[in-house]
Design goal:
Helix content is 10%, strand content 39%. It is mostly beta strands. β2 and β3 form a beta hairpin. The longest helix is centred in the N-terminal third of the chain and has 20 residues. The protein starts with a helix and ends in a 29-residue tail after the last strand. Bound molecules: 2-acetamido-2-deoxy-beta-D-glucopyranose (5 copies) and copper (II) ion (CU). One 2-acetamido-2-deoxy-beta-D-glucopyranose binds next to loops. It is an enzyme of class 1 (oxidoreductase). GO terms for molecular function: copper ion binding; primary methylamine oxidase activity; quinone binding.
Amino acid sequence: MAPLHFEAIFIFIFMIQIFSLISTHPLDSLTPFEINRVQTKILQIYPPPTNTLSFHYMGLDDPPKPTNEKWMITTTRTAYVVLRVNRTTHEITLDLTKSSKNNPKIITNKVYHGNGYPMLTSLEQNKANKLAQGYGPFTRSISKRGLKIDEIVCLGFSVGWYGEKKKKKKKKNEGRIVKVMCFTMDGTINFYMRPIEGVTVTVDLDEMKVVGFKDRIVVRVPKGEGTDYRETMQNRSSTHHLPTKGVIMTQPNGPSFNVDGHVVRWTNWEFHVSFDARVGLILSTASIYDHEKGERRHILYRGFTSEVFVPYMDITEEWYHRTYFDAGEYGLGVLSVPLQPKIDCPQNAVFMDGYLTSHDGNPIRMPNVFCIFERYAGIIMWRHTEASIPHRLITESSRPELTLVVRMISTIGNYDYIFDWEFFQSGSIKVKVGMTGLLEVKGTKYTHKDQIQEEIYGTLLAPNTIGTFHDHFITFHLDLDVDGQDNSFIKSYLEMTAVKNKSSPRKSYWTVKSETAKKESDARIHLGSKPTAEMLVVNPSKRTKVGNTVGYRLIPGPAVRPLLMEDDYPEIRAAYTKYNVLITPYNKSEKWASGLFTDQSHGDDTLLETWTLRDREIENKDIVLWYTMGIHHVTYQEDFPLMPTVSTGFELRPANFFETNPVLSLSIKSPNDIKWINCSTTIK
Ligand SMILES: *[C@@H]1O[C@H](CO)[C@@H](O)[C@H](O)[C@H]1NC(C)=O
Ligand SMILES: *[C@@H]1O[C@H](CO)[C@@H](O)[C@H](O)[C@H]1NC(C)=O
Ligand SMILES: *[C@@H]1O[C@H](CO)[C@@H](O)[C@H](O)[C@H]1NC(C)=O
Ligand SMILES: *[C@@H]1O[C@H](CO)[C@@H](O)[C@H](O)[C@H]1NC(C)=O
Ligand SMILES: *[C@@H]1O[C@H](CO)[C@@H](O)[C@H](O)[C@H]1NC(C)=O
Ligand SMILES: [Cu+2]
């Protein structure tokens, strides 16, 4: 019996290991186990070194969207992989369902011949930077400037597309290239503030060869003093202000949410989180429990940041091509950072890991990629003081606004983007993007504003330092399924109306004019062009008791739109940013607004230029709302040497979705007795 017993234990442990690695939810990201299986299969078909092989993207190929009303997702599980094999791009899908788990079957294997290239891998960027640093003419340029070669930090910049035609036979500078530009970290950790202007090394990533070099101008490198942001390097007396004593959020009874695999449940909410190399955080199947109806209701099938477009406004040789597509070129997930307790997330946070795929196809663990926490920031959810009833005591009613935040941070080179998805008990979802980190600055001879007689494309922030103007356009993919899949988009405008007859002493009032968008072309919205547009996604077949159509509103952030000409190359590639809101019918392959292959793309497979031009029917259909928000970043001295967070965001808010205020009956629970300081009213 004994040996058998041991064997049974062994099998049992083995099973636990397997099950902990196998996903349990059909929308879970690929597990390390699955990534390994895919890698093994691909190495079998394209064994290196015979084939030059690199993995540029691996992720879950979305399971077919359920057609039923229950979001019951089928158990098919497919991986989508983008490879470079012998300098060509391959798109491969593999079947990962249980029967073929150990040897995934190739479903499709397509060679991509169109414009654009897949996301850059971290490994090839590092190699390109090293290559540039060791390149003879480059080291000579560095010594010529009197800089120390071992203090140089180099970075590869995507090159965009400026009208070049893709030729059959490639010439120099026509492949998958990056422009490597360098900085010195002599005297500071903040090398971004010490750019070496004028020197560019162009590297072909497939050949891993230097294919171009320019040393065009010599510009004084700004000094390092005063640029270091580490606490130990600060040298400013703080004796004239009161020190802060620190704040913590404590939950002595523990958090009120639970995480089951990747499903999060908190008060009335339930949703799924997953992690993707390209877009980072993905929220799926968000639903809310409606106490009045006694049922769980669907809101958001899927939401994520589809693209972040950042064009700089300097047209000179070393700068004109700096028009980044952070998701499509670099990957918001690839560049996510492990969240640090206390630094990035409060004490009551819960953390979650994610997995990426390396250049060679290995799974890479991203520890603490998300944190989830409840937030109470002294905000009032609702309140009222009633003092007008004769012969009655004043009554005070109020509820604290306790919310749940899911956070991910991506550091795209110099910039840090803080993505927060915040859930409110009232049914709102607020998405906030905080931008902080370091500006991309340009070296200049100028040390004072009065010396400047030319266009400098930015603000002089410090001696020899220009903070270049730029934009951040952040585009969200929001697949709302309000109370079911078939939804319509309604845009409403407020219209001033004149009183024509003498029925009132008033001469005017405003009223709401609404239109249901029938086709994609009816739903293109420039915010700010008409007074306060209300934008709703409604379920035309569901109405409240009093007859209003149930829906959710998009409450946008400040209106921004590109200030580039339509035929300017970066604008052609990011044409979808022209409208703040676009609606498309759900299509499994339309996820990434800037197209599948964004690096050096020509803008020919994108949300606006291709997808919405089909002008499909969108009324009473499964629709996706694309929302582009952003900031025009005019730089200021306070952004130097590291900028305080600037935030922008939007809200999805119930609109005749509930019969009444859904948060009236919430209880106010305090975990323990609180000592109130100098409070003179009695506390019950
Ligand atoms: C890649 O190139 C090698 C060497 O030329 C060749 O043996 C191999 O078949 C090529 N692979 C593919 C997928 O074309
Ligand atoms: C700190 O500042 C003072 C006065 O500006 C200066 O004399 C001193 O050298 C500085 N110390 C460091 C470590 O930079
Ligand atoms: C005056 O106009 C309002 C609407 O503008 C209408 O409701 C009302 O019936 C009119 N009254 C008369 C007396 O015509
Ligand atoms: C779905 O999107 C893909 C890629 O844009 C396109 O080829 C296909 O025709 C679309 N399908 C429909 C029904 O629009
Ligand atoms: C509270 O009130 C006392 C007496 O009025 C005062 O001395 C003290 O500074 C106050 N505390 C705070 C934190 O304001
Ligand atoms: Cu900025």
